[in-house]
Design a protein that fits this description.
Blueprint: E1 9-14, E2 17-21, E3 27-30, H1 42-47, E4 52-56, H2 62-65, H3 68-75, E5 78-82, H4 86-91, E6 99-102, E7 107-110, E8 113-119, E9 125-128, E10 131-134, E11 139-144, E12 150-153, H5 162-170, E13 174-178, H6 187-197, E14 201-205, H7 217-227, E15 232-233, E16 241-242
Parallel strand pairs: 3-4, 4-5, 5-6, 12-13, 13-14, 14-15
Antiparallel strand pairs: 1-2, 1-16, 2-3, 7-8, 8-11, 9-10, 11-12
Helix pairs in contact: 5-6, 6-7
Length: about 240
Amino acid sequence: MATLGRDVTITFIGHGTFHLTTPEGRNILIDAWVDGNPVCPEPLKARVRENLAAIFITHGHFDHIGDVVDLARETGATVVCQYDMVPYFEGEGIPAAQLVGFNKGGTVTVADVRATMTTAHHSSTIYENGQIINLGTAAGYVLRFSNGFTIYHTGDTCVTMDMQIIGDLYRPDLVILPIGDHFTMDPRQAAYALKLIGAKYAIPEHYGTFPILAGTPEALAEHCREFGVTTEIITLKPGESVS
């Protein structure tokens, strides 16, 4: 497995949730499906709560926000999300002081990380009490750490030419992107996305949790060869880390 050597540790919680430790030792989550996540190893359910500084939310589907309210209440972590989600989270009991709402193209600094919200093509709703609640639109993040290391998390999305712009503007070192198909891009689209972005490393996510998410890292690697993509694929099982 690759060694990043940039004082950032990335742990795959499972499905679409990741735990990151910054060069300053701050802990953050990207999305928050932990307790209800069928592939999250049991020991991680307590570990993700330790010294949690921030939770970055990509969109409002249950498999990305399922535990955000409980985690925010228990830990006091700052919840970073699209502006349109803020009233919903306030109504669910997250204090306004813990919420940072902004929008695509904007940049905020939270837990020593400069985060720019990017476009993702996906929906963002939650089903409650027989009603579909709209929670803004889906997004991704470019996360720039204090030592210059840069991660681009695409969010749930199809491939889009916006990714080439993000690659040109921010030169991410590592990309986290979905490969499962059906609800997001499949491995071939993801390989083309990596061609557009041009990062050195990539971590696939949002696959294998359910049978319908049939994309595989092996298929991603195959299609990278098809497109002449030299990005190194780092395949993490739930509970595994790279640093």
